[in-house]
Every structure is written in C-alpha cells, then in structure tokens.
Design brief:
Elements lengths: L10 H46 L9 E3 L4 E2 L2 H12 L5 E6 L17 E9 L5 E9 L2
Antiparallel strand pairs: 1-2, 3-5, 4-5
Length: 141
C-alpha cells in the first residue's frame, strides 16, 4: 500500500471504522435490550395484579371475595379459597391472598420471597366486623 503525500485515511481505514461503529452500536443495543426486559416483565405483572385485584375486590359470584363493597366486608371463610383458585385459573401467574385475621390465619408459604412479585393491599372487614389488612401477591409460577 502506498501513501500519497497528504493522505491520512485510506479506503481500508474508513471501511474498518464504519464496521467498528456499526458493531459497537449493535452491541450496545443488545445490552440495553436485555437490561430493559426485566422492567417489561414487571410492568406486565403490575397490569395483571390490577386486573386480579379488580376481580377479587368485586361482588362477583365466581371471582369476588367481597360480600359488600360499600362496607368492605368479606365473604365467608369457606368460599375464599375457592374464589382464589378460580382467579388463579385466569392468569399465567400464581395468586396468593394473605389476610391478617384471627378467623383466617395466613399460610406461611403464601408470601413469596422472590424479587419478581407484585403485591396489592387493602383494609377489609372480616366476618367479626374487625378491620384487617389484606394483601394479594402475584408472582411467577
């Protein structure tokens, strides 16, 4: 390869720098894609948690666990687990209900110890008329 006087960049150097820049941008795009995919999954879980909470906090005969939404009164304890199972069939995620009450003790395996979970909370009245906190957890199966 012979250089002429005043020639600082050859055709080969220009092509190599263009290929390097395209490769660099492709690699950075690849990294940013996988960095943001976790946020996308979390966003889908949050949307699903809102949908599940709307189903559960209704007076629906199939899915709802509220006997009266005006007073936030729960249905009888015997029906709650069946309603949770019904809601679990409508979602690709696991659904867990935790009620801190004397008449409905929470299971220890209910609260997932995972980072990819979404929880929705509400204060409700149990069958004794006592105000108790209730949480719904949505997490990967």
């Amino acid at each position: 390869m012979s250089f002429k006087k005043g020639q600082s960049l050859s055709f080969d150097a220009i092509i190599a720098s263009v290929i390097f820049i395209i490769t660099l941008f492709s690699f950075l795009n690849f990294l940013f894609y996988f960095q943001n995919i976790g946020d996308y999954n979390k966003d889908m879980m949050e949307k699903e948690a809102v949908r599940v909470s709307i189903l559960l906090f209704s007076e629906n005969d199939t899915y709802g666990i509220m006997e009266n939404t005006m007073t936030n009164t729960l249905i009888p304890k015997a029906d709650i687990n069946q309603r949770i199972e019904n809601v679990s069939l409508t979602t690709p995620y696991s659904v867990c209900l935790k009620i801190n009450s004397t008449w409905h003790p929470s299971r220890s395996d209910c609260t997932p110890a995972l980072s990819q979970k979404v929880s929705m909370s509400r204060i409700v009245r149990d069958n004794d008329g006592e105000l108790v906190p209730m949480s719904i957890f949505i997490f990967q199966k």
